[in-house]
Amino acid sequence: MRAVFLSSLLLSGLAAGAAPRPQPPPEPQPPSPRQATREATLGDRFSFMVRVPSVTLDVVVEDELGRFVTGLGEDDFEILEDGIEQEIRYFTAELTPVTSLLLLDSSASVRSSLSAIQTAAYLFLRNMASGDQGRVATFSEGVRFGPPYGEEIWTQVSMIRAMRPFGKTALYDAILTGLQELSRVEERKALILVSDGEDSGQGGSVSTREQAIEGARLSEGAIYTVGYTGWSPEGGGKLNREFLDAVAVQSGGRSYYPDEIEDLSRYFRQIQHELHRQYQIAYLPVKDRKEGGWRSIEVRIRDRDDLVARTRKGYYAAPEETVPSR
User: Fold this and answer.
1) Are residues 208 and 221 in the same domain?
2) What are the φ and ψ backbone dihedral angles of 222, each rounded to 5 degrees?
3) How many Å from the N-terminal Cα to the C-terminal Cα in the chain?
4) Do 84 and 123 sit in the same domain of this protein?
5) With CB atoms 3.0 to 4.6 Å apart as the test, which of 88, 100, 136, 194 could cross-link to 159 if both were Cys?
6) How many angstroms separate the CA atoms of 267 and 248, rounded?
7) Cis bond before residue 53 (omega within 30° of 0)
């Protein structure tokens, strides 16, 4: 009954035409400082455009109850790179549009949850604010991208409706392919992954679990994972929460595990709310980037131990020559 209900919700929503969109956010501030780009590679197949030498962070601040904290200023933030305080060169707390890529598992293992996954994608797109852009990609043994990023969700609907569960799950490859595509976006961005968190192993991805998590560390946009129980050849359901949590945490995102349609609606409202209430901060690293290597990042709120700032864990400083972005 639940699958029928979810399918009915999705199809009725599609047939009803465009639903009212949330109010647009205020006009964005000027873009963050002009940066250079370098290519970061993982394995033989995947590469990412990573902006350097300035480091831009999307930061979410919460209180002890998990509520978003707004109204903070530049002087409230302390940025540490490898334990050394950095000088903030750019700061905005204004609401700005977000570009999102929805990466949807359509392998045979999620057959029982396919209707819920379709509904999840539809609900997310329907709740985008004016100015936001979205794109849909589905994956099993490979990744299939829908129409280019756009504000009009109905251009993406056919991709959702055409989903059919088949094939093995190349989850790790799909994550890296999605991040590779999203790295071309220079605006504020996010990856929404909907999956059971399991890779098929043999016959699945060429890349490894560690490379997928490393890709999340490299990502300049947060990854939000939505976990659904998949089918296991050994019998029973499977849901790899450990992997989905790791991918989300490394990028500064979150993981969600809905049980009912009401959970879906609430979680996606929360993701949309969070994406539009991030503080954007940029700094020029004090440490000479020619040294290369991993740089850890920590964001603190001065004199407020009751607040938690969440962002990506760090970045790689590569000594290669950079090429100005366009």
Assistant:
1) yes
2) -70, 150
3) 51
4) no
5) 136
6) 15
7) yes
Indicate yes or no: pTM above 0.85: no
What domain range is 130 assigned to?
2-9+96-275
> Beta strands of the chain (E only): which ranges?
36-42, 46-52, 55-62, 77-81, 84-85, 88-92, 99-105, 133-139, 143-145, 189-195, 222-227, 230-231, 237-238, 255-256, 279-283, 294-301, 308-310, 314-316, 323-324
Asked if residue 241 is part of any domain, the answer here is yes
**Does 288 share its domain with 218?**
no
The owner of tokens 């709120």 is 301
293 sits in the region (left: phi over 0; alpha: psi -120 to 50; else beta) called left
Number of domains in the chain: 2
Please indicate, yes or no, if residue 16 is contained in any of the structural domains: no
Which residues are within 8 A (CB) of 291 and not within 5 positions of it... i.e. 6 or more apart? Answer: 317, 319
Amino acid at 272: Q
Angle at 181 between CA 91 and CA 22, to 5 degrees: 55
- Residue 22, in any domain of the structure: no
Whether 326 and 73 have beta carbons less than 8 Å apart is answered as: no
Q: Token pair of 186, please?
A: 């220079």
- Cβ neighbours for 65, distance < 8 A, ≥ 6 positions apart: none
Considering the domain architecture, whether residues 86 and 69 belong to the same structural domain is answered as yes
